[in-house]
UniProtKB/TrEMBL annotation:
Keyword Lipid metabolism on entry: no
Domain N-acetyltransferase: 16-169
Source species taxonomy: Bacteria, Bacillati, Bacillota, Clostridia, Peptostreptococcales
One Gene Ontology term of the molecular function aspect: acyltransferase activity, transferring groups other than amino-acyl groups
Organism, as annotated: Anaerosolibacter carboniphilus
Record's keyword annotation contains Transferase: yes
Full protein name: RimJ/RimL family protein N-acetyltransferase
Amino acid sequence: MYYKKMVGRKCYLSPINVDDYEKYTLWVNDMEVAVGMIFSASLITPAKEKRTLERLSETEFNFAIVDIEKDELIGNIGFPKLDYMNRVAELGIFIGNKDYWGKGYGTEAIHLLLDFGFNILNLHNIYLRVFSYNQPAISCYKKAGFKEAGRIRESKEIAGEKYDEIYMDVLTREFQPLYIKELVEKKK
């Protein structure tokens, strides 16, 4: 079961449902999905994935991404690192269901999480990391408002090729809120 915490036009963010561990296990062991992620070299069993989802569901700001029309899980998104003192967070996103790739779901989920981060958690800077070979992800992040902030050169090697790890970020003043602002206006 999913609960609509942050709602967009295509998808919504819900608390993570630990019972989805088998679906996640299929996704994280699919190399086409995993190659862009840090866990690509890991072997992930259902038991291990269930423990991961239990940990994520207990951590404050991790969400399932759910298709609004079909009520179907497509991935997850959240803040794996959060620095409350300096108001900075790292964003992580994972779209495991390949049927949803390249259709704007990731961009919308990012917008919803940015809205939550900037307007509810009062963050100032939200950043992420991506490997330079992952052009679809970089394009998605740019559409969501992220800009390149720096890179660690040749930090990832795959199939004999070296790639940069790119850091991208967005500041609160660069973000255009949608969902939270509308909710506040309705309360006035």
